[in-house]
Specification:
Length: 708
């Protein structure tokens, strides 16, 4: 992964004169997993640089061009013949408009200061434009992030998901608290905004009272002169960060009493990393630097004197605070670098799936979003979503499931009346935590295109597909509705998989493929062909799936066909469910009932259409029932006559039901062939492999008999 980091113009990337931005960038880059392919760009007159990764941009100065534009032009010129995966801009939001045309959304913007004080993010429109034009905005504190969203509309939706808080870091070394000295420190600009006047007034009183204590001040301020003198007070001027950290190993108390809103507060962070008792003001992001700091309220010299005085007098409490700060410090360079690297990895996936080969045993991370019916407590456990899920897992992949309708059902409220907003948030959070290679949707109608757009935007290599089980015949039920459902997300899909032959759609769906309703060896466990069963023919309709029972006034044209069939075949014993006032059956009750029949009728809603069947065919054939299906489904293309029975019409079906009722041996032979063939050639593992091979464009070692 190639990364270009752009520093602010004139940011000193030098060992003895580095600013907070340069220190952060250098420290994180040194421990990043992308260290060897990360280059830092800036402009400085310093001869010595913090890192070999640094590239100094020499500007061709032009009279009529602003420095910023000249700086960016030089940066862009450098990248004319170089392809990078990611550009990271630090603390200059006004640079984004100048580079977005070149890098599109390959941009991360870091804020190290208050966004409302910076050119390019002061007004509402600028901040919304930033959200639209970058992949991620990273703030150095929650306070800075909150400032960014001041007066922005509440309906930003997924744009707000582009923001993230990542604190600055420091090194952590072993501290010997016995070597701490009676020293109080102030590090920073020596001005009133930083509270140096409060510190100066206070420290003179402290040093006069406690003769065995001293103070060190590190910093300067050429624009403002605040002079404080004492024999035990050392004003050391500007020092390198390395020097400061070394001094903090000996210092006992550090004071950061800023009047202005510090965006974060590197001084207090570093003090905590060295086991110093920290006193801070409650300004900006300072309280986020360490959990165990003493906070100055009110912010005045009297209060500061009292806090320092008490710490000096209570040595036990002083030591406790020092150890708490040290023990609670986790923001090491490696810790923060891992966070940033995970963000980078979510944007550019290293694997190239166009050369993916199943023989390499690459383990994919799959986010499978469909209705897993958790709210029905197992009643609807035996469904295609779970069958496919089993297949993905058997292939060795890592699968995270999201049950969309369960989330919606639980999340409905006054502000989110249909629960869809909660679903989008849940998916985004799941993907952020899981970082999927592939998202597979199954009848996930409530997943919005906005959500998919966002996920594709943050990971250009993310693959998304959908599977769909309902009929798509022109003369079938809900044709227009079902067609609209599968077409709705087409722009974001790499493939669509249908249990209807896609040719019936006459080319309206690109990258669409037929899949059979898969059986699963852990679901279809019966061998009805081995038994002399109580009933001849099993047939069940799934009315009232979510209600769990028949709904009054519900009509299905299959009932007419079945009732005619019953009248013509008095010698056939039918076992029927979901019609004629007999309630439908589910779960283990379904398995128990189907185990009592020798034959099964696979009759789907609407007129027969090429390859379409409900998932009932997998349950019937997979459990060893001799299965009957209309020959106009064209299953004979891959299911021969010695595995399933085809009929022309109701008369032909009646004849064949009676024939195989009498011919036990032939009935059992064909039923056994059907089960064995279905479990071998149309199982969930093969169908899952087919879905992944078409979505990720790899050549599978398996052969798929249903695919032309």
């Amino acid at each position: 992964m190639k990364i270009s980091i752009l520093l602010p113009y004139k940011e000193n990337f030098a060992p003895n004169d580095a600013g907070a931005v340069s220190l952060f960038v250098n420290d994180i880059t040194n421990v990043s997993i992308f260290k060897k392919t990360t280059f830092i760009f800036g402009n400085t007159n310093s001869k010595k640089k913090l890192s070999k990764n640094y590239i100094n941009l020499e500007l061709n100065k032009k009279i009529f061009q602003s420095t910023s534009k000249n700086y960016i032009k030089t940066f862009l010129d450098y990248h004319k013949n170089i392809v990078v995966d990611l550009v990271e801009v630090h603390n200059r939001p006004n640079y984004i408009n100048l580079i977005k045309h070149k890098f599109s959304n390959k941009i991360i913007l870091y804020f190290h200061n208050d966004p409302l004080t910076m050119n390019g993010s002061k007004d509402i429109k600028q901040r919304i434009d930033l959200l639209n034009n970058v992949h991620k905005i990273i703030f150095n504190s929650e306070w800075s992030k909150k400032r960014f969203f001041i007066n922005l509309p509440n309906n930003l939706g997924l744009l707000s998901q582009k923001t993230f808080v990542c604190y600055q870091s420091s090194s952590k070394i072993k501290i010997n608290f016995n070597k701490k000295k009676n020293i109080i420190s102030f590090v920073g600009k020596l001005n009133r905004a930083k509270g140096y006047d409060l510190f100066g007034e206070t420290i003179l009183k402290i040093l006069n009272k406690h003769k065995d204590w001293s103070a060190k001040v590190i910093g300067d301020e050429p624009r403002e002169k605040l002079i404080y003198k004492h024999k035990n007070l050392k004003i050391l001027g500007f020092k390198s960060n390395k020097y400061i950290l070394k001094q903090l190993e000996q210092i006992s108390i550090s004071v950061v009493c800023s009047r202005w809103d510090e965006p974060f507060g590197r001084t207090s962070l570093e003090a905590a990393s060295r086991g110093v008792a920290v006193i801070i003001s409650d300004k900006g992001g300072l309280p986020e630097t360490t959990r165990d700091a003493l906070i100055l309220k009110p912010l005045n010299s009297t209060n500061l004197f009292n806090i320092i005085d008490k710490l000096i007098l209570d040595k036990k409490r002083l030591l406790v605070l020092q150890k708490k700060n040290y023990a609670g410090f986790i923001l090491t360079h490696k810790y923060v670098a891992n966070i940033i690297d995970s963000i980078r990895k979510s944007f550019v996936l290293k694997r190239k799936f166009n050369i993916f080969n199943i023989k390499k045993n690459v383990i994919l991370k799959i986010l499978h979003i469909t209705n897993f019916n958790q709210r029905f407590n197992g009643r609807l456990h035996y469904n295609t979503g779970r069958r496919l899920n089993n297949g993905f897992i058997r292939l060795g992949h890592n699968v995270l499931t999201v049950s969309d309708r369960d989330i919606i059902n639980k999340s409905k409220n006054i502000t989110d009346y249909n629960g869809k907003r909660a679903l989008q948030s849940s998916i985004l959070e799941a993907h952020q935590n899981f970082n999927a290679d592939c998202i597979i949707l199954g009848h996930a109608d409530s997943v919005t295109n906005e959500t998919l757009d966002y996920l594709k935007n943050i990971n250009k290599n993310l693959k998304i597909c959908q599977w769909f089980l309902d009929p798509l015949g022109v003369h079938g039920p809900d044709y227009l509705k079902n067609l609209a459902r599968i077409e709705h997300k087409q722009k974001n899909l790499d493939a669509t998989f249908l249990t209807t032959d896609p040719t019936v759609l006459k080319g309206s769906m690109n990258n669409s493929y037929f899949i059979p309703n898969p059986c699963d060896k852990s679901f279809e466990t019966l061998k009805n062909y081995e038994n002399d069963n109580l009933n001849d023919v099993f047939f069940a309709m799934s009315h009232g799936v979510h209600r769990g029972g028949l709904k009054k006034g519900k009509y299905d044209d299959r009932e007419i066909f079945i009732n005619k069939l019953i009248k013509r075949n008095n010698q056939i014993k039918f076992d029927l469910y979901g019609m004629n006032n007999v309630q439908p059956i589910w779960g283990d009750n379904f398995i128990n009932k189907v185990s009592s029949s020798s034959m099964g009728l696979n009759l789907s809603r609407g007129k027969p259409i090429k390859y379409y069947s409900s998932d009932r065919i997998a349950q019937l054939m997979g459990n060893g029932l001799l299965t009957f299906v209309d020959k106009k489904t064209c299953f004979s293309d891959f299911l021969s006559n010695d595995k399933i029975i085809y009929y022309d019409d109701i008369n032909d079906l009646s004849y064949k039901l009676n024939k195989y009722k009498r011919d036990h041996k032939e009935r059992k032979r064909i039923a056994k062939n059907g089960k064995e063939f279905y479990l071998k050639e149309l199982n969930s593992t093969l169908v899952a492999d087919f879905i992944l091979s078409k979505t990720l464009d790899y050549k599978s070692k398996n052969k798929f008999i249903w695919s032309k």
